Amino acid sequence: MHGPEDKYVKVPALVHATRLGWRYRSIRNDKPGTDYDPDTNIFYDLFGQALRRINPDMDIDDDQVRFLIRKSAVTLDSDDLGRAFFSNLQHGLDGYRLIDFTTPDNNDFTVVTEFTYAHDDDNFRPDIIFLINGMPLCFMEVKRLNNRNGILAERDRMYTRFRQPFFCRFANITQIMAFSNDQPYDDGDREPIQGSFYATSSYDGIRMNRFREEEDSGRELLQRLKPRSIDEEKLILKDNNLISLLDSPQWNETVDPRTPANSIITSLFSRERLMFLLRYGLCYKDYVNDNGIRVIEKHIMRYPQFFASQSARRTLDGGVRQGVIWHTQGSGKTELAFLLTRYLRDYYQEQRRVLYTFFIVDRLDLANQADDEFRSRGATVIRVDSRDDFVKLLRKPSAWNTGQGDGITISPVKIAVVNIQKFSADAQAITAEYGLNEQRLFFIDEAHREYKPGKSFLAALFNADRDAVRIALTGTPLIRQKNGADTKQVFGEYIHTYFYDRSIADGYTLRLLREDVKPQFRVRMRSIMDTLQEIDKLTDLDQVCEHPHFVEPLAEYIVNDLMQSRIALGKDCANIGAMIVARTSQQARNIYDALQQYDPDLSSALVLYDEGSKEDQRDIQKPAV
Questions:
Q1: Nearest-angstrom CA–CA distance, 625 and 71
Q2: Concatenated DSSP letters of 381-417
Q3: Which residues contact 517 (CB under 8 A, 6 or more apart)?
Q4: Using the 8-state DSSP alphabet, how is residue 188 labeled?
Q5: 564 neighbors 521 (Cβ within 8 angstroms)
Q6: Could you give the angle at the alpha carbon of 524 between the alpha carbons of 523 and 530, nearest 5°?
Q7: d(Cα 312, Cα 306) in Å, to the nearest integer?
Q8: Going by C-beta distance under 8 Å and a sequence separation of 6 or more, which residues neighbour residue 170?
Q9: 482 burial level (CB within 10 Å; 0-12, 13-18, 19+)
């Protein structure tokens, strides 16, 4: 008996996939060991035919096909979240390419349903499996409409399965997962309860992402859809014992390409889009956590990162060499720089040019953070903390040959992290050596800072290589600044934008609630400011805000408001904390001193942006255990 998710979500989604160029395959008569390898669920015939097509100069018989699948099975047994197998997808196995990324039509795209992932008596059957060259690299789980907890339950089941050693191979071979209950997003709920979501595999919790198509790209994808085929629909309906649905009003509604379930399939599994995501949209983060334990995470591009990459490509294709990516704080701009470097490296390689990437920061802690983030993703990082080192990289390509690497990734991304904080004042004298086969890419991090035209390093950067690409990254660009210091005026037009309100709706940023200051307190503080300005003759506003007569009542108000909030919100919020953002560093110190007179149970810590390392600040902000 078929549930409503089969009739109105799964089977229409299968039909929609065929309109995107996928071929439906019935697996009723397919047998393990004969038609597919039960350890990996790779189909022998599809895999072999694709190998021969992609590698026309190689002699590939059936024994070689099965040998490569067995070798992949051994690779997939590794406790590495599929990292070694992913490298084979990217770069080939024993000299054989497994996927043709440059010519998508050379690959085989087959979709099946209810294909069993089995180990002895334990098994699960994803609703829709997307086979690329016979390899089950993606799948989709669907739920009926108004099943409020269905997606959360499926996420938790997937987490439970993938952490089991006997399902390790299936976790490692899976690159992209989609989940949908065919409803629009509920942007008021951070949890993935309603809508269509995507993720990549994990041993330690599945992170679900929304995908919001941009208007132009969404329209373009819909225009590429093949016309409906009644014969194809009959075949799929008959194979799923639902032929009675054909031509019913409900059927015609559910195969509409604009339904939420069909839309996520279009966004993720359109063939060229999928090839891009498999090639550039996935990366591994390998690091040691605060407890000294090695952690391997697999990340998939968030949709704003994807569209920023596409916009950057269009910008470069249009002959523009600089611009701003304005993505809100916490949206993954450092990872975007890594992913973009990997993408643009191949973009310029097709033009027979070697890409040299510089990531520019203006503080030591930011340099250390960027260094850690890039290395953890497998990049070769070159630290530049002096003008001389920077000039050497500009003038001598051999200086980039460090011999570093992660031992897994072939030809790792190379990024020079440049800390300009202590560059000498004569930075304008920097010049680069030009080479016809060279292309420099400068990422300017935190571009909302005081980067001004004509000022030492920035002018040197612009003059050193006028053919370089300069991409400014910021979450808070400067707008309407004096002396031409607007972020756009300095770095160019916006390449892509992703704002705070959208990040809240997507669940990446916590929602902020604005609470007005009580009128009585506002009047009191206004009176204090007037007194300090008129009687004490303090004309500088910073001095007023730093004065004890201003700071002490401010600290008192903050403490009382915090304690009342804890009481009002109940015992579950007894440990709720607060963050005070001060006007100046001195005001922050004075507020901290004022807080020390209160109950010792009310602990506080002082964090200054220009003092202490990133690690020191992180330790200060850790909650007490």
A1: 46
A2: EEEE-SHHHHHHHHH-GGGG------SSSSS--EEEE
A3: 557
A4: T
A5: no
A6: 90
A7: 10
A8: 41, 117, 136, 161, 162
A9: exposed
- The model's pLDDT over 550-575, given as tens digits with 9 standing for 90+, comes to 999 998 988 888 888 777 766 556 66
74 vs 283: CA distance, rounded Å: 21
* Phi-psi map region of 224: left, alpha, beta (phi>0 left; psi -120 to 50 alpha): alpha
| % helix, strand, coil for the chain, step of 5 | 45, 15, 40
Tens-digit pLDDT profile for residues 575-609: 677 788 888 889 999 999 988 888 766 778 888 76
Instruction: With both helix axes pointing from N to C terminus, report the angle between 548-569 and 585-595 in degrees, rounded to the nearest 10.
Output: 60
Scored b (16 or more CB within 10 A) or e, 257-295 reads bebbbbbbbbbbbbbebbbbbbbbbbbbbbeeeeeeeee
With helix as H, strand as E and coil as C, how does 567-612 read? Answer: HHHCHHHCCCCCCCCCCCHHHHHHHHHHHCCCCCCCCCCCCCCCCC
pLDDT average, residue stretch 292-313: 95
The tokens 């070798």 sit on which residue? 71
Residue 12 C-beta-side C-alpha neighbours within 13 Å: 31
Instruction: Decide if 67 contacts 99 (C-beta within 8 A).
Output: no
Q: Do the beta carbons of residue 295 and residue 289 sit within 8 Å?
A: yes
Candidates 308, 317, 381, 307; CA nearest to 347 is: 317
